[in-house]
Amino acid sequence: MKKELKIYLASPRGFCAGVKRAIEIVEKAINKYGAPVYVRHEIVHNKQVVDELREKGAIFVDELSEVKDNSRPVIFSAHGVPKSVPDEAKFKNLSYVDATCPLVSKVHRESEQLHKKGYDIFLIGHKNHPEVIGTMGQLPLGSIKLIETKSDVENLQANNFKKPLAYITQTTLSVDDTAEIINTLKNKFPKIKGPIKEDICYATTNRQLAVKEIASKCDLFFVVGSRNSSNSVRLVEVAKKAGCVNSQLMHSEKEIPFHEIENSNTIGISSGASAPEKLVQALLTNIKKDRKVSIEEVIVAEEKIVFKLPKELN
């Protein structure tokens, strides 16, 4: 007799509109221009997605200097790029398609408008993440100051800032941690200006909400996603904070911990915004081999957002 196991499946999970759009841009570009097309950086942070696109004819490079054939188009990743990258592409006569998520582009425009109006800008985000590099690269060097933690805010000297202050954020942060940093900023700089509509994207917020809803009921929590996927790593942190201490990132190299599953009565499962649903289904199939599984999908929001493709591909 297989032992019973209850699985709570978080919803929404997996692909967001920005990721779907980015993948579609690469596929449409290959259909339209033929293979290969170059992609600067991983189009989205997921090994399986990148491998599948590579098989279809995408060549992934870190920098434009690695593009071997200037007659082929280049696609910029969903995380956004510094201004210097399209400038370099134009200089080299490369045709390019920008797959930056529209919600990241919104943050780019905010930073430009704040800079024009004379603000000193703080960006709450993770150092060296491609999205942060892209956002900071919208403005001249030194125009944006990166804030990673509350202690970064506490270490700021209030009298060093003569201009009005504003903050923007990376789109894939922990909602709760970011709220704490923002409160610390507002306490230190009561007049600081924030975005009209918060920068953390709807998909990040919804996925974190769904995890919070179920984590406390679970003995074990799996988040399917890549190690370099900011939103996936945040989901693991959120699950731990919300009450499931044994929360793990199921990335491509990680073995399924069957001994831990064996000792669990309830398991929660979610996936990051760049993780394909088939990886979740594969995990479920593996768990079902040894256990009698009942699944309850916990839905906290319906996502109907679709982003238009760039006009070059329509």
Architecture overview:
The protein is of the alpha/beta class and 314 residues long. It has 3 domains: 3-15 and 202-299, 3-Layer(aba) Sandwich (Cobalt-precorrin-4 Transmethylase, domain 1), CATH 3.40.1010; 17-98, Rossmann fold (3-Layer(aba) Sandwich); 102-200, 4-hydroxy-3-methylbut-2-enyl diphosphate reductase, catalytic domain (Cobalt-precorrin-4 Transmethylase, domain 1), CATH 3.40.1010. Helix content is 38%, strand content 19%. It has 11 helices and 12 strands. It has helices at 17-33, 47-56, 84-91, 102-116, 130-136, 150-154, 175-188, 202-215, 230-241, 258-262, 277-288, and strands spanning 3-11, 37-40, 58-61, 74-76, 96-98, 120-124, 144-147, 165-169, 220-224, 247-250, 266-271, 291-299. Strands 10-9-11-1-12 form a 5-stranded parallel β-sheet, sandwiched between helices. α5 links the parallel β6 and β7. α8 packs parallel to α9. The protein is flat and about 65 Å long. The mean pLDDT is 96.
Can you tell me the CATH class of the largest domain? Alpha Beta
What level of helicity do the residues show? Answer: 25-40%
Counted by DSSP, the helix tally is: 11
Average pLDDT over all residues: 96
CATH topology of the largest domain, what is it called? Cobalt-precorrin-4 Transmethylase, domain 1
Task: Tell me the distance between the termini.
Answer: 55 Å
Q: What's the SSE pattern?
A: EHEHEEHEHEHEHEHHEHEHEHE
Rounded to an integer, what's the Rg over CA atoms?
21 Å
Largest sheet: 5 strands, parallel
CATH superfamily of the largest domain: 4-hydroxy-3-methylbut-2-enyl diphosphate reductase, catalytic domain
The percentage of residues in β strands lies in: 15-25%
Neighbour order of strands in the largest sheet: 10-9-11-1-12
CATH architecture classification name of the largest domain: 3-Layer(aba) Sandwich
Structural class: alpha/beta
Q: Characterize the overall form.
A: flat
Counting structural domains, the number is: 3
Work out the number of β strands.
12
Model regions low in confidence, pLDDT < 50 over at least 5 residues: none
